[in-house]
Amino acid sequence: MVKFIYNGVMGCTVTLGLLLLIALPAASAEKPALRIAYLPILDHLTLPIAYELSDKGKFEHLTLQPVKYTSWTELVDAVITGKVDGAFMLVPLGMHLRQKGTPIKLVLLGHRNGSALVVSPTTKSIEGLRGGLLAIPHPFSMQHINLYKYLVEKGRLRKEDFTILDMEPPDMAPSLARGEIDGFLVAQPFPTLAEVADTGRIMAYSCEIWEGHVDCALFLLESVLVANHDRVGELIKVLVDAGKFIESNPRKAARLAVPYIGLDEEIIYKCLTNPPRGITYNKLVPRMEELEEVQGYLIRMGLFEKEMSLKELIDDSFVRAVHEEGQGTRE
Asked: What is the pLDDT of residue 7?
C-alpha cells in the first residue's frame, strides 16, 4: 500500500419609532446573499469572474458573495459549520464529505483539467521518482488520482515505490527548491510559478494524464437548494456565463482575476493559455459516468471502503436547465 503522510486535512417615543420604521427600508427588499467559498486558484476562477462581470455580485434574484479561504482545511470547516452556503471543492473531497454525512450536493463543475506534475529540473523520467516523496493538496483530490494514474498505471511503479505527502499548495515549490520533496502535483498557478522561477520542471500536465478530467465543482448545502430555487438557478447561469467569458477572453479574465488570485496578470494568462486546453471552463455539466470512474479510483486506491450513492450527490437540474434554454455551455 502506498505510504501516506496526512497533516490534517463553522407618546414622543412612539412617534419617533414610527418615523424610523418609515425611514428604514424593509429587510425583505434586500437581495439575499449567497456566500460561496473559494481558494485563490485557477480551478475556482468562474466565481470571481462572475462577480467582476456584474455590479459587484448584484443580480436579479441574488447578491453573490465570494468568500476567500487560503487552505482546504479552513474551507471545509466553513462548509461543515454553515459559515458559507456552498463552496468550490475538489470532487473527491465533496464525495467524501457527503459520504460522511455532510448534506451537500454537486450542482456544477468548476472547470476541467488544470493541474500539473512538477519535479526537480534534474529528474528526467518517471523512474527518477522511485523512492521519492511527492506532495498533493489533499488525499481526497483529483491530483492524488492523477498521480496514481501517471506513476502506477503509466509508469509501472508500485504504490510502495513512492511516498505521498499532503501539503498546502503555496508551500510546494519552496519545499521542492529546498530538496525536501521530489515533486508535486497541484492546481495552477503553482506549477507555472515553479517553472517561471526555475525551481521545478513540469513533467506532465493533468490534461495529458486524463484528458477532460473533472477536478473542482460547486457544492451547495441541501438546505440552500430547498429554500432558494430561483437564486440557485441564477447562480448557476452566471457561473456558466463566466466560464464562457474566460474561454473567449483569457487576457481580460486574467486582468480581472489579479486581485483574487494575487498574482501578476501575465502569470495568470500563461496558466489560462499554455498549454491549449490545459484548463477549460466550457463543459461544466457533471456526468454520472465520470463520477463513477472517480469513485472507482477512490476504492481502488483504498480511500473509499465502499461505494456511495452518486444519485444522492448530484443535482444537475439547474445546469441542464441553463443548457436547455440555450443560455449556457454545451455538455
From this structure: 52
Tally of domains in the chain: 2
300 and 225 part of one domain: yes
φ, ψ for residue 45, nearest 5 deg = -70, -25
The chain-wide mean pLDDT, for the chain, equals 90
- Indicate the residue type of 236: I
Question: Dihedral of CA 3/215/255/235: which sign?
Answer: negative
* Strand (E) or helix (H) holding 106: strand 104-109
Residues whose CB is less than 8 angstroms from the CB of residue 232 and which lie 6 or more positions away in sequence, other chains included: 34, 107, 220, 224, 225, 318
Contacts of 322 (CB under 8 A, 6+ apart): 233, 236, 237, 240, 328, 329
pTM: 0.89
Give mean pLDDT, residues 242-247. 98
Cβ contacts of residue 20 below 8 Å, gap of 6+?
none
Last residue of a domain, one of 171, 189, 209: 209
pLDDT of residue 118: 98
